[in-house]
Amino acid sequence: MVRLFFIALIIFLFILIKPKYMIKKKMLFFFIIYGLIGAIAVLTQYIGIVLGVPVAIVSFLLYSQPIWTVFFGKILLKEHITSRKILSVAIAVIGLLCLLKPWDIKSAGPLEGIISALIAGIFISLWVIWGRKSGLNKQHYITTTFGFAAFSLAWLLLLWPVLNYFIKDQSIVRLSLGFPSHYWIYFALFALISGVIPHSLFYKGVKHIHASVAGILLLLEPVSATVLAAIIFSQSIGLNVILGGVLIILSNYFVTKK
């Protein structure tokens, strides 16, 4: 939630200088829905983890996103489901399985947590779809990033009490602003590097490619995260990570090859 706040704040300060990027009235409903999609995606993945579903299982269900994106892309955007897309998704899912090794988990966790994580994957897919719709509606990527962050934050504040139903430990769901002053600088930098820049680039890119293709390309995220962890934190890379990464990269090659 803090990350979304700073993403919205940073872009809002920019919009004060460049007001042409402010959301137009005719697009308000679009971004209200987009914010709801974002809030549900955040809450459901959070609930899945808190309810005790192993991170590998939650991650796999979240990254099932391309399957849903191909499906919703056909229904909502009239995108064609081609054999190349199906093959790319299949290869990517196999690569993801190799990367995360969910079969090593002794217990998958409670059913409600698994369902919650699966719902998160579906709504991440809708996040991709709505990003594509924004591009088709000729929205600037800065406007889309601001609209998504601001309205997701608003919906999260409205829906946050829902967590009390699932989570009884108030130390987890309590909202607090009592951080040391230098923490806020770190939060702002984190929001800029992990939020403003990648979101803006994503929305700029998805204006020119199908949502289903973008959904598959997003699976490069766990691969790049693993490589960065190896470089920055000296974490070892096992054979499963290499195999999974190669398969995901191969799926990206297939889906983008003309």
Plain-language structure description:
76% of the residues lie in helices and 0% in strands. It is mostly helical and 258 residues long. The protein has one domain. Helix 2 packs across helix 7 (141-159). It is globular and about 50 Å long.
Number of domains: 1
Helix content: over 70%
| Secondary-structure class | mainly alpha
Count of runs of 4 or more consecutive helical residues? 13
Q: What best-fitting shape do the alpha-carbon axes yield? A: globular
Give the number of DSSP strands. 0
Strand content: under 5%
Radius of gyration: 19 Å
Unreliable stretches (pLDDT < 50, length at least 5) are none
Give the oligomer, counting copies of the same chain as homo and different chains as hetero: single chain
What is the element string, with H for helices and E for strands? HHHHHHHHHHHHH
